[in-house]
Amino acid sequence: MANIALETESTLTERFQTTVPSSVRRALHLGKKDKIRYVIQADGNVLMTKVEKTEDDPVMNKFLSFLANDMQQHPENLQQLTTSMRNTVQSLIENVELDLDAPLSDEDE
Questions:
Q1: Does the structural domain 1-74 have CATH classification 2.40.30.10?
Q2: pLDDT at position 99
Q3: Each residue's pLDDT tens digit, 49-62
Q4: Which residues make Cβ contacts (< 8 Å) with residue 71, sequence separation at least 6?
Q5: How many CB atoms lie within 10 A of CB 21?
């Protein structure tokens, strides 16, 4: 059996609802409106984790949907990346430095 740091329980209501105990909320860093994922393992145990939020960009989602739809409807317009195109892109980014771990400035947020 796994090491148990804390054991707690809650009760199901008539409508199969329960309150997540405060110790579990703290351990998972849960807040109001957060989502919880349940993984039922083969041995019957259930693993409960916090669903990490991903911020959808509605404009990007619509653009990607547009591209996917256009590629399906007009596959004849798709073309391979040529050496010339690759060289052009390479020349545009060759002196660009990027630190993916750097925090965003307030204007980038």
A1: no
A2: 85
A3: 999 887 788 899 89
A4: 77, 78
A5: 13
Q: How far is CA 27 from each of CA 5, 15, 19, 48, 71, rounded to the nearest angstrom?
A: 11, 26, 15, 11, 45
- Cβ proximity of 21 and 8 under 8 Å: yes
Q: Which amino acid is at 32?
A: K
* Phi, psi values for residue 27, rounded to 5°: -65, -35
> Distance (Å, rounded) from C-alpha 31 to C-alpha 11?
20
Summary mean pLDDT of the chain:
89
- Cα–Cα distance, 60 to 13 (Å, whole number): 42
What confidence tens digit (pLDDT) does each residue in 1-52 have? 567 778 899 999 999 999 999 999 999 999 999 999 999 999 999 999 999 8
CB 35 within 8 A of CB 43: no
* Residue linked to tokens 């054991």: 7
For the chain, which residues make up each domain, given as ranges?
Answer: 1-74
